[in-house]
């Protein structure tokens, strides 16, 4: 997947910026606060429906502007060129994909594949389960587009709607036929989602095995498993919902199901995720992200776009070189940011396009 054009307006310090990146490595330098990370945010926003730096309404829209706007053009093997645009005011959004109106941001997530490693990525390992669920589901948006049980995006929407309706009935204290009907829908979609998540975790494992040996060999190995969100070995989701109904009515929300699932990480030669050093946590998160990229490449036949924000401050030079060597052989389009040129790029003699950001303006360097 290659991004050919990026146009951003009204995002943080970026007033009106256009960038035409190269197909391989793209190095973006600039002082802290210059706007270089905002370029990555724009591409991440289009591919994930959210910023990696917090909620959209919390400062992502440039002060004094009514909304931010992002426009992208990209290519991928075997398909005609694609384009997408997103306008977001912080409270409302509208988007278009290949000239057609988009009704769900998930449609953008499904169309555009961008994976970002940034200073907050450690939360994928040591943060809440929500981030790990989002990690699994974003991958499934791309690899489960048709399945006997339904494509993942359709299942995800069915589950979200049933979950919302059940919660509304719980808050009303209703235990009637309508609640039975929504529990049936929730159980059907939830069981199918869980099966797809389990299969996806199994497909991720060999990619994790290869990368953990390259990037974090001290771990000795990293095993992944899915915690489904209820006692699945003992009972189905329909029974779990029924057993939890009285408690859920008292609490006013659904306490069991795929919305409480988690990705379990077990390191063979290191303590649990809470006992890792900060550096080990960052490397483990990077392994998970690159494994997802590698698995997507194996499935789709091409790599997603990769973004490495502030790489020199996140990884020491030795690990920078290991990561860049892996990526250099992938053929992926890669964006790397830093306050200065990244030494590991020069040491490995990796050709790249160079850009510089200053006061929210992007320029290409010779």
Order of helices and strands: EEEHEEEEHEHHHHEHHEHEHHEHEE
Instruction: Kindly report the spatial arrangement of strands forming the biggest sheet.
Output: 2-1-4-5-6-7
Low-confidence stretches: none
Question: First CA to last CA: what distance?
Answer: 25 Å
Shape label: globular
Number of helices: 12
Rg of Cα set? 21 Å
Helix content: 40-55%
What is the strand content?
15-25%
Description:
- This protein is of the alpha/beta class.
- 42% of the residues lie in helices and 22% in strands.
- The protein contains twelve helices and 14 strands.
- A six-stranded antiparallel sheet has the order 2-1-4-5-6-7, covered by helices on one side.
- β5 and β6 (93-97) form a beta hairpin.
- α4 crosses α6 (177-215).
- The longest helix has 39 residues, at 177-215.
- It is globular.
Summarize the structure.
With 366 residues, the protein is of the alpha/beta class.
Q: Which key phrases capture this entry?
A:
366 residues; alpha/beta; six-stranded antiparallel beta sheet; six-stranded mixed beta sheet; 12 helices; 22% strand
SSE topology sketch:
Elements: E1 2-11, E2 14-19, E3 25-29, H1 36-48, E4 68-75, E5 82-88, E6 93-97, E7 100-101, H2 106-111, E8 114-117, H3 123-126, H4 129-143, H5 152-171, H6 177-215, E9 222-227, H7 237-243, H8 245-251, E10 262-267, H9 278-300, E11 305-308, H10 311-314, H11 317-328, E12 334-338, H12 343-347, E13 352-358, E14 361-365
Parallel strand pairs: 3-12, 3-13, 8-11, 11-12
Antiparallel strand pairs: 1-2, 1-4, 4-5, 5-6, 6-7, 9-10, 13-14
Helix pairs in contact: 4-6, 4-9, 5-6, 5-8, 6-7, 6-9
